[in-house]
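Worked example

This section walks through a single chain of length 552. The input is the sequence exactly as stored; nothing has been trimmed or padded.
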Amino acid sequence: MTGKTAPPAASKKAAAAPKKASAAPKKDSTAAKKETAPAPKEEPAAAPKEEPAPAPKEESAPAPKEESASAPKEEPASAPKEEPASAPAAEEPSAPEHPPAAEQPAAPAGESAPVPTTEATPAPQEGLPAPPAETPAPEPEKPKEEPPSSPLSLAVEEVSQNSVTLTWKTPEQTGQSGLDGYVVEICKDGSTDWKAVNEEPFLSTRYTVQNLSSGDKIHIRVKAISASGASVPATLDQPVVIREILQLPKIRLPRHLRQTYFRHVGDAMNMMIPFQGKPQPEVIWTKGGQPLDTSRINIRNTDKDTIFYIRQSQRSDSGKYELTVRINGAEDKATLDIQVIEPPGPPQNLKLVDVWGFNVALEWSPPADNGNSEIKGYVVQKSDKKSGQWFTVLEHCTRTSCTISDLIIGNTYSFRVFAENGCGLSETAAVASGVAHIQKTKTTYQAEKIPQRDMMEPPKFTQPLTDRTTTRGYSTHLFCSVRGFPQPKIIWMKNQMEIREDPKYIAMIDQGVCSLEIRKPSPFDGGVYTCKAVNPLGEASVDCKLDVKVPK
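Given that input, the structure is written out below as tokens.
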């Protein structure tokens, strides 16, 4: 804009005329006065137009605001000079965009117009730079996803003259997006140049590296790949020699070594473990991941087996031993759990808790030293003071307390307890400090007082006499029964006449049964017979009729 002459006053009015015309249709002369107020809008435009062409892009919106406060007083006439640069037709579309400008209150006479500077920022004129667009609020950054963890249990499955087959397990952490696959890399021994074998990741956990040279010694590693990156590689511990394995390594662990192998302290330990594999495999023994102490343990290897030998076992020899048979990265492993034990110590704090009747209660604590083996139980013994010999009362008692019964009254007993583990009983026993004396109980016999019962009873016949018929010359018997206390006296009568010492009659009484035998009766002996019982309390009698017939 520099170098141009200012247009005449008539052109200045002509430039302002379109603005009035755009606002005039709805406004009268009062509105025309208000049109003069927006003049400060044009003043801020003078500053940016005088600067070089790239300036409007670099200039920020607040710059016109600073000039609008000071420019109106110093250069009121300079603003119209720049105005002809914009054609009236170009300013006409700006009027509808800002119709509220006519409704703003007009500036008082004699004052500058810095008040509408707030509207100067969104300048509607073409010559002014556009206000900067509002920048959107920054989105919160998403946490970066961590790459997956290393593949697990990388091992060599098979080696041939020109290939090697690997196996591994899926990583513990695969990430939210999951695995894209795995990449296998190889590097020759002595070099650091790792090369990827596969171009694209694959999801299988088994892979065969082909086209290898026989006799090469290579290092192999595997990476897990996901959208967040590659994992730390899982690398084989030893380089793999590319040559054909005629027979994969295999350990033939004996059956008795597949469980915990117990030995006593001081015993010799000699284990032979066969294996197979061609060519000659490498045999490696470790304990807890560390090499063995060759000063105590002797290892001898042959083509088909390995021998583990210890002259005198100690408790420190206990632990888990790892046997590895390896051929060019292919390997087989076995674990031996060896436990060297000895007899336990004696139980502690054996106490005689209580003595009552024929019983004794004992309590104790486990031994301080279990002999490197679990305590299986306890053995409780007793000793009589008279004999002094020990007898086993309880075996394999799993508790630390017991009750001993059936002790003999009047004897004094001592007690001791042994601990027992897989090696046997403890060498010494815990002896109770006190003794148990089984005292005699004093008992006094008191006869039970039974009230006397009155057994006196007058005679009473329980079975009467019955009428009989007999034949002359044939003896006959008359029977009846009677009871009474004291025992009644029995009197037999015939026709109311007492029968006395007559050999023809025999009278008897047994357990209350009365009988009268009539020997060879005749018709004269027939009649009424009476049995009479008499005692101090009274008397009773029964009758019967005897008929003696004469045979014809």
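What to look for: Residues 249-341 form a domain with the Immunoglobulin-like fold (CATH 2.60.40.10).
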